[in-house]
């Protein structure tokens, strides 16, 4: 029997009474806190040596780092999700490559005032190497066939960089070169645990471990993040050492982030550079780990969970940007079989209609057109995830659930930040998918927790739209 997960309690919101690695990888590949770390009060540190870049962007000049002069946005600004602009007299570098992302001039919009939902839902009513073939039990559905969700990020809001996201720890600053990686006997134990006792997918762990080992000297952040995930898994199975393993996981994740930030600034790389493979692996493992932490350790209240979930989407979007143009190289790596299988499942002509009623509720709401479009897009992404979950075999279908947070748009996240009921309903339907993946240690009972949390917050006024997620909790047990 799986050990209990920590922090399972939650308190109701104002509305009512108490009532795996590969999908992350494939999702990023296919689609591709806001303050800087406080300066020390001690003596001013010497600036890191760097070559002058006469034609570099303003942001790199301000940060005193070397700019690769790529247009329309340099790699440093793409990685850190900053607004990139060049002096008018700057001449584009012959070596600069054009990124797929253009930068927005404005920062992310401020969070709206929290409110308790009081509107009635208008018009709501009850409601291996072989490519996996679609099962015959799934009939074709015009609604269910969505294909792979695509995100229009022509002008994404400015989002925190990795170092800004983890700015709470002074050690996460990228202005200091991290120490050379040291792997101790403790880390060997974690690696052995990851290889022999950390179930996530039957076919994907060997290539993950092989890539992490192969690049452990040049790109140690991939290995560090793998070991951080293993430490958290070990904490579930060793209650007497749970705190120590959790502390180790945090230390390894922090070290991985430092190395990743340092590496991407010192060596931005080119689209055809194979260094994108360990960076891709790190990004997917970090996204997976962050999802686990959000679902497990932030359950004290509705606002504690939602705030953390929203915060984590910022990092997911930054991760997507890092490896956006490297899919062809990643596809030529040992990850190829799984990526092809997942892509085939995501493009199936077969699908369900779990979210059909939810989409009708969203379309008939009195939200602003832009918010309706954002919530509808998120609803269709949940349906896509349900379809992929039904297509993939039981050992691999968790990947559909871990893909969803990576595909969310900034507009939907903003609606979630403002506690729009329709946006919360989408999250409740996602809770159903999590509940169907509850046998995975990454997910556990988080689906049940999420559905009940949102039901408590929305209250009886939204009981009818919440009927199906709550019914699933009652009928799908075991």
Automatic annotation (TrEMBL):
One MF term in the entry's GO annotations: DNA-binding transcription activator activity, RNA polymerase II-specific
UniProt superkingdom: Eukaryota
Renumbered to this chain, the Low complexity biased-composition regions fall at 17-44, 108-128
Q: Membrane-spanning residues where?
A: none
- Mind telling me which Gene3D superfamilies this protein's record contains? Zn(2)-C6 fungal-type DNA-binding domain
UniProt keyword list: Nucleus
Pfam family for this entry, one:
Zn_clus
Task: Using the record's annotation, list all stretches that form the Zn(2)-C6 fungal-type domain.
Answer: 56-86
- Compositionally biased region (Basic residues): 45-54
Q: Which InterPro entries match?
A: Sterol_Uptake_Regulator, Zn2-C6_fun-type_DNA-bd_sf, Zn2Cys6_DnaBD
Region: Disordered, residue numbers: 1-55, 108-136
Q: Can the keyword Nucleus be found in this entry's annotation?
A: yes
Q: What is this protein called?
A: Zn(2)-C6 fungal-type domain-containing protein
Give the taxonomic lineage as stored in the record: Eukaryota, Fungi, Dikarya, Ascomycota, Pezizomycotina
